[in-house]
Amino acid sequence: MKSDTIAAIATAVSDSGIGIIRISGENAIEVADRVYRSKNNKKRLLNVKSHTIHYGFIYDGDVMVDEVMVAVMKEPNTYTRENTVEIDCHGGILVMRKILDAVLKNGCRLADPGEFTRRAFLNGRIDLSRAEAVMDVIHSKNEFALRSSVRQLKGSVSDKVHSLRKEILHEIAFIESALDDPEHISLEGYAKKLGEKTARIYGDIKKLVDSADNGKMLKDGINTVIVGKPNAGKSSLLNILVGEEKAIVTSYAGTTRDVLEESIKLHGIGLNMIDTAGIRDTDDVVEKIGVEKARKYAGNADLILYVVDASCQLDENDDQIMRLIAGKKVIVLLNKTDLEQVVSEADIVKKMTDVSFDGGVVRIIKTSTKENTGMDVFEDTIKEMFFHGEIAVNDEIYITNQRHKEALAEAGESMRMVLNSLADHIPEDFYSIDLMSAYAALGKIIGEEVDDDLVNEIFAKFCMGK
Amino acid sequence: MPEIREKVDVCVVGAGHAGCEAALACARMGLETVIFTVSVDSIALMPCNPNIGGSSKGHLVRELDALGGEMGKVIDKTFIQSKMLNVSKGPAVHSLRAQADKAEYSRAMRKVLENQEHLTIKQAEVVSLLAEESADTSVLYTKKILGVKTFTGAVYEAKAVILCTGTYLKARCLCGEAITHTGPNGLQAANFLTDSLQLLGIEMRRFKTGTPARMDKRSLDFSKMEEQFGDERIVPFSFSTNPEDVQIEQASCWLTYTNEETHNIIRANLDRSPIYAGVIEGTGPRYCPSIEDKVVKFAEKERHQVFIEPEGLHTNEMYVGGMSSSLPEDVQLAMYRTVPGLEHCKIVRNAYAIEYDCMNPDQLYPTLEFKKIQGLFSAGQFNGSSGYEEAAAQGLIAGMNAALFIKGKEQIVLDRSQAYIGVLIDDLVTKENFEPYRMMTSRAEYRLLLRQDNADLRLRKIGYEAGLVTEEQYEAVCRKEQLIAQEIERLQGIKVGANAEIQKFLEGQGSTGLKTAASLAELVSRPELSYEAIAGIDKDRPKLPDDVVEQININIKYDGYIKRQLKQVEQFKKIEKKKIPVEIDYDDIKNLRLEARQKLKKLKPLSVGQASRISGVSPADISVLLVYIESMRNS
């Protein structure tokens, strides 16, 4: 089985900010040694005794990431019975990710879901009576990863991957049908055409790698839904957040014209913003659909931004909204402070209690989206909620991004080899294998396997046979 | 009532390409074997195209030969034209194809069978299989094979039975509205065996295939066609054939094309095609579509190639490759006569489609033995494959394994990294096949290693250990292996300096000069050079046979690609080697996803590797399976 070196964040994300990155496998100590520097930069982890702990720093290239304690444990007396290094850090979730990034760049790959446990078991470290539990872990972690990885992919990225795969498959099918039926299909002059195409696809894949590097592939972070009555200032809020261009990522239409999605980053925290149609009781059919959508999104949200026009009295529409967001994590923005205030913080609290708002977390902030005031408090509030763990961090997103990056890198490498082969005038049957690897690697991103795709494409597109 | 009752070791049902190889393998391994055929005159019949080999099929024949099969030797004796395909491409896809003299091929194979010790040919239709409930409860078999019964009531008791029924089971030939219940070439169909197989619990299905018309050579105008010649230097199929013996005078083939007029006739008469009229229920192969299919599916193509190939030297019949059809006779004649050179053609045999019973091969282990019926094996079109070569390859493996089973020895499974034959069988028994399966080079993921030029190096040993390859043949391949290794090592060891003499030599060869010293191997690896090209600066080289030189060139030139594939194979072998205990109870593994559990229960893979190739089994399921197997092993 796979016995290469793997790494992952081994601790659950918590507000304590303390976490462990675990590396396991034959080269675990070498990998750790490449990112570790002791205080005087003289100690090498390769030379230390087993089961010892070392103070020092983790470097990503020349950039210091964090101050850490590193535990070095040689096989077989470790959790996985393989060489294991655990990096103990305290810089919070973002630092943990950076450390993992650095580790992954230095000769290991991201662990599969449940892989440490599987290795521990297969290497005889875990009691046989716990086989059932081990299988549980593997199963549930994989199911989760599978569900989230495709769901989190941005529509535009998914479209791009699909179209690249389609192009690649077509080329392979052409080559293979010519190999299988050389008397019907000729490859004369084909290499040049393929060269141009491959260079472009290679470029496209590299762009995707960049976007993965910048966290732009996934609907990253916290699902944040803006709700409120029409004209409360919801869109203005979104415009400010986006307009500041702190980190605009993409802008694309939602599934209907009633919902707009934006991905933004505030202090390194990804927010997947969804602006909804204003909620009010209505007989208008079109608007009703929009409102229904808003309800659905609010139901799935990690965080609700409830924008209230503080210059207007609360009414039954606000009751409806409050019922909708009951039990959620909510930031209420008392907006339009530039106008005369008729709604106070106390009014909100009272009303929320009245509509049985239980179990949720509510913060109230005064803002004016018109004059752009109160936004700093708003941002700080989000930051605080995030780092205190009030808003759950979906760590899977980060992990998914890492997996996609690995798959893209693999696909890019395969395409690069195709270019090399073309430059060396290597025959088609060699590099069509690399094209196939690229096709398979890209498939991992959108959750598709190779199966009989090639054979089907050959017969669908190329007329061959006796 | 008196009846004939005979006791033998193996019964082979069918004497086509699969049956012949299966029967020869069993008999050569010392077992008393009977091969049944509905007509002794149709042994090793080629009812469709008159050639052996072709892309990836040529590989199968080479591998079959390396293992001790007969097809390669027989075609070497009976071919009338030969070509190495894809020579402008990489060595992995070079593939031999030979035009056969059909009658001679059939006769030559029959002669081999007739003279094989321990082998008896019997003209009889097998109508049922005899089996009993299995007494052995430690394995999955529910039944055990006992023998076969023929139409006349004769019983042949046997320890193993190999089904190679080809396209004969409940066969039906269609030529437009004219339908006959016969096998290929008007031969008698086998109408009883299917029922007996179903009674044994074997799941059957119906496939179809087709063949074009045969024409009288005298009615064709070859001046309107392009002549297609064979290779100047002919390479034999068999590793045991002396290349000098096959440098014969060759027959020509001819190329012509369909045109709009042809296509119009076909379009106007589609409603009379049994396929488009819905009369045919079987699934046909996409890779050899009828001309109707081509015209409908690729409507934008203005013309299709038509190859006119001789059926033999002592017949005027010509095969019309590329135009198989099930259209009615009158439409066939009209359509063929629109093709340049065929304007006045006379049809000797009409084109027809044939439907037949076969089975879903996922009922087999990769040994080609039935999972439920001990001692019952099957091969060829019965397993849902297509093609003479695919059939022969399976026949040999089924025969070898039936013999090994009787001898109580471990059976042979070639894996996907060892041979195209391994890919073929693994695909058949593991993947879902909805049409007759044809070998294709794209199906072999490790094809850079599975070349036709090294089939002997890959497989001779296995054939030798089974007893199908002679000691002498095996030693020859060992010597070859040694010569290759020694010579590559020598080339790597000799360094030449960047001196004037060397630079001048390299320039003379159209290569660039050296900057620093380089080994001779490095020079061979240059695209513009080769082992032969650097002879001038390698005066002390030993005299080596051509096939050794070929291996040296390939191994040095494509070293990087070969090493990469070897690395992939290493990964592949790791889970391929993990065996799944036969007594495993998939219902007991709670964390398998439902689809995976159902598929695993049905397919009963032998190894974790095979399990991983079943569609619907995810990597997570494989992890769970591994943990479960580990816990089984320890408890």
Tell me about this structure.
The complex is a heterodimer of chains A (466) and B (635). Chain A has 466 residues and is α/β, with parallel strands linked by helices. Helices cover 46% and strands 18% of the residues of chain A. Chain A contains 14 helices and 14 strands. In chain A, the strands form 2 sheets. In chain A, strands 3-4-5-6-2-1-7 form a 7-stranded mixed beta sheet. Chain A has a 7-stranded mixed beta sheet with strand order 9-10-11-8-12-13-14, with helices on both faces. In chain A, helix 4 (131-151) packs across helix 12, helix 5 packs antiparallel against helix 6 and helix 6 (190-213) runs antiparallel to helix 12 (395-423). Chain A starts with 5 loop residues before the first strand and ends in a 5-residue tail after the last helix. In chain A, 44% of the residues are buried. The model of chain A is unreliable at 244-258 (pLDDT under 50). By secondary structure, chain B is of the alpha+beta class. Chain B has a 6-stranded antiparallel beta sheet, with no helix packed on it. In chain B, strands 1, 8, 9, 10 and 22 form a 5-stranded mixed beta sheet that branches. In chain B, strands 7-3-2-11-23 form a 5-stranded parallel beta sheet, with helices on one face. In chain B, helix 2 (57-67) runs parallel beside helix 9, helix 2 (57-67) packs across helix 11 and helix 6 (260-268) runs antiparallel to helix 8 (329-336). The longest helix of chain B has 23 residues, at 471-493. In chain B, 51% of the residues are buried. Chains A and B meet through helix 3, helix 4, helix 5, helix 13 and helix 14 of A and helix 16 and helix 19 of B.
